[in-house]
Amino acid sequence: MASAPTLGGGPQKKHKVTIVGSGNWGSTIAKILAENTRANADLFEEEVQMWVFEEEVSIPKDSKYYDEAAGDKPQKLTEVINKHHENVKYLPGIALPSNIVANPDIRDAVKGSTILIFNLPHQFIGNVCKQINGHILPYARGISCIKGVNVTDDGVSLFSEWIGDGLGIYCGALSGANLAREIAAEKWSETTIAYDPPAMDYSRAPTPRTGSPNPTTGEIPEIQHTDARGRASKTKLTAVPSDYPPLDQDCFRTLFHRPYFHVQLVSDVAGVSLSGALKNVVALAAGFVDGRGWGDNAKAAIMRIGLMEMVKFGKEFFGETVQTATFTESSAGVADLITSCSGGRNFRCAKISVEKGISVQEVEKQELNGQKIQGTTTAEEVNSFLKARGLESEYPLFTAVNDILHGKRQVDEIPNLMSDS
Ligand SMILES: NC(=O)c1ccc[n+]([C@@H]2O[C@H](COP(=O)([O-])OP(=O)(O)OC[C@H]3O[C@@H](n4cnc5c(N)ncnc54)[C@H](O)[C@@H]3O)[C@@H](O)[C@H]2O)c1
Ligand SMILES: O=P(O)(O)OC[C@H](O)CO
Q: In this structure, which of 202, 207, 228, 382 has its CB flanked by the most CB atoms within 10 Å?
């Protein structure tokens, strides 16, 4: 484990960072983090591990990476990334810092990391967490960049909660008006990180921090924490040892903030996570009406109604800890809704599906080269949750999107279905 001297003379360990996922957004976030670990060598190990779901890619003859010796033979994506420092499949044309290591072995990628960034389409997270459970540091902390919700018979949960409870760690959430391709090109944007860790992770007094190992047993103490809904957490957290820099909001700001990527830190993990998930359903509706050629007024109506349903859903199912302002004032809320309804993949796929008269899933396959949209599954999951509670009519927009996706309603019915909203 790399360490640096401290004023007190004791070892000061550095945080090791792993990104779990390497798609369009995963690779963009990896770029940001690797730039910042390089710039902040006092806090972080420079090398950033990026777990890649291994697949083979063919390098076309006209590519600058075409290798005569290899010819048309498909090559492993991890090997291409590590050799050329570019994710040629999911983030083509963007140079990645050389301190990113693409790793196809998930357990090896997370080994010894104190900071785990979860960034992959939500349908894959369950399997990935199963593989790393028991193979991570007990005092690791996570940030979920996943835009989706987890719906089971028991109810709806956030991926931050689900990852945290499943792995026995604290996990916050990052979400914002963040079209990956613009951020990868270093065009200015904002994001919101919700991180509300146990006080023990950042209290500097008394010294040493209460997360220090017991001097007799060497054990690192467990701590009780409050979850995103304000309840006592099911998970007893292990305190971050005091020979690491505090894992506080400042630490995450340093890790994520770039001149082209401005970070706002808040404590409302539920509001940030829900905004990121539900706006994808609204973006599909915006794509449907745009595909019919109804113009900007119709799209604005969809955004207004969608925002109201997002707030209502948050308040109704996640209680008073959810802040309305997260939806109406943060980048994760209204700003993400606007960008997603303007140029997001969910919006674009829904628009093309109406224009061509084919399903959104078919457009996703044809247009996105392996990238995955999240709105279709989220619409279904939210609908099954609402239906089980007899609440579909209280969320006419969410319900209409699911019904259109399943061919039960037509786009032309949207105005009538929204008449009471
Ligand atoms: N792309 C964006 O502009 C953007 C921006 C903000 C947030 N997000 C969110 O970030 C999350 C990740 O999206 P993305 O854009 O990085 O992904 P993506 O759609 O670009 O890529 C798909 C990823 O899934 C991986 N994959 C395919 N099959 C898999 C399997 N069986 N198991 C595990 N992984 C598999 C692929 O390797 C690839 O990395 C999503 O929740 C998305 O909503 C995306
Ligand atoms: O391209 P989408 O629709 O997955 O949206 C991307 C981001 O979430 C926009 O902030």
A: 228
Residue-wise pLDDT tens digits, 269-310: 999 999 999 999 999 999 999 999 999 999 999 999 999 999
| Mean pLDDT of all residues in 213-234 | 69
Same domain, 289 and 246: no
**Burial of residue 397 (number of CB atoms within 10 Å: 0-12, 13-18, 19+):** buried
Is 147 catalytic? The answer is no
ipTM above 0.95, yes or no: yes
Pocket of ligand 2 (CB under 6 A): 147, 177-179, 280, 283, 336, 339-340, 344-346, 373-374
The pLDDT, as a whole number, for residue 212 is 57
- Ligand 1 atom index nearest CA of 176: 6
Give pLDDT, residue 222: 67
Asked, for residue 249, whether it belongs to a domain, the answer is yes
End residue of a domain, out of 267, 282, 312: 267
**Ligand 1 site, CB within 6 A:** 21-26, 53, 90, 119-122, 124, 145-148, 178-180, 370-372, 374
Are residues 296 and 239 part of one domain?
Answer: no
Ligand 2 center to 291 CA (angstroms): 18
Stretch 327-350: mean pLDDT: 98
Tell me how far apart the alpha carbons of residues 405 and 390 are, in angstroms, rounded to a whole number: 20
Between CA 260 and CA 315 the distance in angstroms is 33
